[in-house]
Amino acid sequence: MADVRDMYMIHTVFRREFGLMPGLVRGVADGDTERSEIVGAHLDLMCRFLHVHHEGEDVILWPLLLERGGESTRSVVPTMQSQHAAIEAALGQVTESLSPWRRTAREAAALADACESLNASITVHMALEEEQILPLAEKLVTHSEWKQLGAHGRALFTKQEFPVCFGMAMYEADREVTKSVLADAPFPVRLLAPRLAPRAFAAHSRRVHGTATPPRAASLT
Questions:
Q1: Are 195 and 162 in contact (CB under 8 A)?
Q2: I need a surface site. Which of 43, 83, 146, 184 has the fewest CB within 10 A?
Q3: If pLDDT is split at 50, 70 and 90, which confidence band does 151 have?
C-alpha cells in the first residue's frame, strides 16, 4: 500500500517556503526590481508547485478515497475539496498582485498580505490532511496509485525547476524517505538526484533567502 511519508516532505516545503514568503516580499526595497524579480520568480514557482500538488490530489486521490472509503471518506473529502477551492482563490489573489510587484517592486503590502492569507489557509489544510487523509490513504491507496501523484507533479516542471523543487524537499527530509521516493525512478535519476538536487536548491536558496540553509519549517510555527 501507499507509503505516504513523501507527503510530509512536500508539506514541510510548503510550511517553510510560504511561511518565509511574507517576510521576503516585505524585505524588498521599494523600487528594487532586481530583487523583486528574484523573489517574484521564487513565489511564482512555489505557487505553481502548490497548484500542481493540489491538482494531483483532486484528479487522483479524492476519487480513489471516495470510491473505497465509505462514510469515513465521505465526511472528510468534501472538506478537502472545499479547502482546495479556497486555497485556489487565495492563490489567485497572490498571482494578481505578483505580476505588477515583480515588474515594479512597488506596493508590496498587498502581495505580502495575500501571501500571509494563503499561508494561513494551507497551514490549516495540511494539518487536517495529515490528521485524517493520510491514515486513510495508507489503508485504501496502492503503492502504484500513490506514485501517480508524484508523476503528475514532475511532468509539469521544467528540467531546470525539478532539481530545485526536489532539493527543497530533500532539505529537511529523512534520508530513508528520500531513498523511498526515488526507489521507482530510473537509475540515472536515483544516482544523480541525491547529489544534484541539494546543490540546485542551495544555489536557489542563496539567491532567494541569502543563505543555503534557510530557517526550518518547525521554527516558523
A1: no
A2: 184
A3: confident
